[in-house]
Amino acid sequence: MLSVLAQQFDISGADYIAGQEALFAGLAYGLSALGPAIGIGYLVGQSVQAMARQPEAAGMVRTTMFLGVAFAEALALIGFVVFILLKFA
């Protein structure tokens, strides 16, 4: 599809390659953010379920949940750094 658009709008080779780099860098970041998003959703859901079953352990569960969220969010930030490196390297 990109090659058809490139022919239609008479885009040169360097511009076509730059467009593909931007497209795939964005795709890489989107895919790298998908895993942590699923992980954080699962983690928070299970933590809420654990707090509902044992309210006396809510403090410990909450602390562990925040540590897990921080580690999962770090994966998304690493994906963002890779996106920047692919785009501007």
Fill in the keyword field for this structure.
89 residues, mainly alpha, 89% helix, elongated
Question: Can you walk through the features of this model?
Answer:
There is one protein chain. By secondary structure, this protein is mostly helical. The chain has helices spanning 2-8, 13-53, 58-88. The radius of gyration is 21 Å and the shape is elongated.
Write a short abstract of this structure.
The chain has 89 residues and is an all-alpha fold. 89% of the residues lie in helices and 0% in strands.
Q: Would you report the number of β strands?
A: 0
Measure the end-to-end span. Answer: 25 Å
H/E element sequence = HHH
Number of helical elements: 3
Low-confidence stretches: none
Strand content: under 5%
Class by alpha and beta content:
mainly alpha
| Basic shape | elongated
User: What's the pLDDT, averaged over the residues?
Assistant: 82
